[in-house]
Specification:
The complex is a heterodimer of chains A (408) and B (323). Chain A is an alpha+beta fold and 408 residues long. In chain A, 28% of the residues lie in helices and 19% in strands. Chain A folds into two domains: 191 residues, no CATH class; 137 residues, no CATH class. Chain A contains twelve helices and twelve strands. In chain A, a hairpin with a 2-residue loop joins strand 11 and strand 12.
Chain lengths: 408, 323
């Protein structure tokens, strides 16, 4: 599909048209805090703040998701029943709750979209593991309209791990800010459908050569602004070798063992399942949980294999860069840097990877000096052996849009 | 000699003498706009310690139950006035071992509210400097530089501070800051007057609104120096499920109420919870309100006198209860 051009002041009309058939979610600022919220006519989408406080994962992987409702009631006794059937007895009522309305998420960043692709593997039955109907129904009904990061932050590191400020992974249509509006590219059939629906409300003209060129320049300039704080090569093996190193204690000293990093993360997906019962009715629900919660690994016996703060701390990085890649052939991080920005004590994942991702006994690695020349180069050139980002696994259904890099 | 130099000197000596296993102070974070907790083990590494108006972290957090790793370590720690009151509250209840502590008090004339500064810029702040007393110079990623008066960007807790000097310490990092006339001037609660003047319904509506965005990450609870139940926290209990694990306005409100009531009488409104909250919920408001209630009813200020019993461990017939 040819690149289109949308005037900036036509964006509300586009969203309004989309909102006719889907719930539209976009970043909005409320009391100085930017979060993804349902779009309402008259509210201005916030694109100046690069990253909303939390990624939009909550819109697909709900923080609290009810599986089913249950209750106890007296069973009706049929007329003329005899024997046991005539004895008054209780019965259980179970009502499964599962709704997945069509939704469009606008204004997420390519790293946020990539987070969904990584979560898709966990919930999508990758490699023969569990297929989660609730997550997948919601994911299937969701269209991701991402906006290129024009001004990456100092905490961004997407290019170091195979991402890109204009990345395509998971993105259905990409909006790039150019003079007076957006250059718009549909990348998947879902994206095309969304743009066609949006075109009912707003004019999507063909982009001029100048606008296409400006978009390409914006993407390239943004890519060059992203620091490359570590070299991914070898990190998986070094994390493995350093599992018992003292360095984990030192790095975890200032950790307060809260779950902030995991709850702002576009990739962290851990949850727990609870039953709540009030009198004779209740529900079974899942809610986000995190590996910093002391109860997360506590066993029924009372034994906790990750009793110390540093054990739990180590797990987060091992999971993202070692055992998740081993199991799912992909990283579990998209380099948004939210965990660095929002950690109450500013624990820095880049520092952790430089320190514990270096060979045992060696000092922490220096940041890589040169930025990625272009997104594609990082993927093909420095792709780690243990974690071939974007690699096709045989027999596994891959989500849409796994093509990475700038192709403007 | 600056306060920073004093801190480094005390830390180096305590580490060299073996008085402490490690020393907790502050150091620069991932860029010049952040100060973060620093854990120093080597006397030769004390030069990383800093003291600036960015040092907002209450380091007493790292003394409470299940935080020190290894448990039972001998720890040196820096405390500001408000921090020292949280330490005082823990000491009053014998929740930390005084003999294993080495406390360096740091008189403080106010900490800068970084979030307030963030709101002044669309761009990311990469450096905050203090070119002269009372001035804050902020530099953004694109290179814009702006100066502000420090007093306009102080933390809420600092604008009404009654204890700029630590109430408990083994050493003091330099001369004391001028003390307010505490005996003559009662605390200034005007910051919560707006809340207090609301009707009950409006109060409920306001609280539901501000807590609706809570993500239940436990940052407020874990960072709170006087909130120490840790894995036995009633908010975490699943069996029985005393507080719902669901997020939702009513559930979040209960979750926060539990925290507020459990730290009442120990909380000196240091504001650590407020600053830790990733979604910027003004948690400070209700803790201040609780402090006011306790002050009005019992004339008690948490964590000030080490020989005093915590207010909720005392039954006194002379106490005046509300109507």
């Amino acid at each position: 599909m040819a690149i289109k051009y949308l005037k900036a002041d036509a964006l509300p009309a586009l969203l309004e048209a989309l909102a006719k058939n889907a719930r539209v979610v976009a970043p909005f600022k409320r009391d100085g805090v930017t979060q993804f919220e349902p779009w309402q006519s008259g509210k201005d989408v916030e694109l100046d703040v690069l990253l909303a406080k939390q990624s939009p994962k909550e819109r697909v992987f709900l923080q609290t998701e009810t599986y089913l409702k249950f209750g106890y009631t007296m069973a009706p006794i049929e007329e003329g029943a005899e024997g046991e059937a005539a004895v008054p007895h209780e019965m259980v009522i179970v009502d499964a709750v599962n709704e997945a309305p069509a939704q469009v998420i606008f204004g997420l960043r390519p790293c946020d979209a990539r987070g969904f692709v990584q979560m898709d593997q966990v919930f999508g039955g990758y490699g023969g593991f569990y297929f989660d109907p609730l997550y997948n129904a919601r994911r299937e009904a969701t269209t991701l309209l991402a906006v290129t990061c024009r001004d990456p932050r100092s905490t961004c590191f997407c290019t170091a791990i195979g991402g890109c400020p204009a990345g395509h992974e998971g993105v259905d249509a990409l909006f790039t800010q150019v003079d007076g509006g957006f250059a718009v590219e549909a990348l998947t059939p879902k994206g095309e459908a969304a743009l066609a629906a949006g075109a009912a409300g707003a004019v999507l003209a063909d982009a001029t050569d100048a606008q296409t060129g400006e978009a390409a320049e914006t993407k390239m300039a943004a890519t060059l602004k992203v620091d490359v704080p570590f070299d991914l090569d070898g990190i998986r093996d070094n994390l493995h070798d350093n599992i018992a190193a003292d360095g984990w204690h030192d790095l975890a000293m200032r950790c307060i063992s809260c779950g902030t990093c995991t709850y702002v993360c576009p990739n962290c997906y851990c949850f727990s399942i609870n039953d709540s019962l009030v009198e004779s009715t209740g529900d079974r629900y899942r809610c986000w949980d995190n590996c910093f919660n002391p109860l997360y690994t506590e066993e029924t016996s009372g034994h906790n294999p990750r009793a110390a703060k540093s054990n739990r701390f180590r797990n987060r990085f091992g999971h993202k860069f070692w055992y998740y890649p081993d199991k799912y052939d992909s990283l579990l991080c998209s380099g948004c840097g939210r965990c660095i920005m929002h950690c109450p004590t500013r624990i820095d994942i880049r520092e952790v990877l430089r320190t514990m991702g270096s060979p045992a006994g060696q000092p922490p690695a220096e940041p890589v000096a040169a930025p990625a020349a272009e997104c594609g180069a990082t993927v093909s050139g420095a792709a780690p052996q243990a974690a071939p980002v974007g690699a096709e696994a045989p027999g596994a259904p891959r989500p849409t849009g796994s093509e990475e890099g700038i192709d403007a | 000699m600056s306060r920073q130099d004093h801190i480094r000197e005390f830390a180096a000596k305590a580490l060299a003498d073996g008085r402490v296993d490690y020393f907790i102070g502050w150091k620069q974070g991932y860029n010049g706009s952040e100060a973060i907790p620093a854990f120093v083990k080597d006397p030769a590494a004390v030069d990383q310690l800093v003291w600036t108006p960015l040092c907002h972290h209450n380091l007493v957090t790292f003394l409470k139950r299940n935080m020190p790793d290894p448990a039972g370590a001998k720890i040196g720690v820096c405390v500001k006035g408000c921090d020292s009151r949280t330490l005082g509250a823990l000491l009053q209840e014998k929740l930390v071992d005084k003999d294993k502590l080495y406390v360096v008090g740091v008189p403080c004339d106010g900490i800068v509210d970084r979030r307030k500064l963030e709101k002044e810029f669309a761009d990311e702040i990469v450096d905050i400097a203090f070119p002269e007393k009372g001035k804050v110079a902020v530099t953004t990623r694109k290179g814009d530089r702006k100066e502000f008066a420090q007093n306009d960007f102080l933390l809420a807790a600092c604008t009404r501070c009654r204890y700029p000097n630590p109430v408990y310490s083994d050493e003091m990092a330099g001369p004391l800051e001028p003390e307010p006339e505490r005996d003559l001037i009662s605390p200034d609660w005007s910051d919560i007057a707006g809340y207090e003047n609301l009707s009950d319904d409006d109060k409920q509506a306001l609280l539901e609104k501000i807590y609706s965005t809570c993500v239940r990450c436990f940052a407020c609870i874990n960072v709170c120096p006087v909130c120490f139940c840790w894995d036995k926290c009633v908010n975490r209990s699943r069996q029985p499920e005393l507080v719902s694990q669901k997020v939702g306005t009513k559930e979040n409100l209960l979750f926060q109420m539990v925290h507020m009531f459990h730290v009442a009488g120990r909380c000196p409104s240091c504001g650590a919870c407020d600053r830790a909250c990733p979604v910027e919920i003004p948690l400070y408001l209700l803790h201040r309100k609780m402090n006011k209630e306790i002050y009005d009813m019992f004339g008690f200020e948490p964590g000030v006198k080490l020989d005093e019993k915590p207010v909720f461990q005392v039954f006194d017939l002379k106490d005046q209860f509300g109507d």
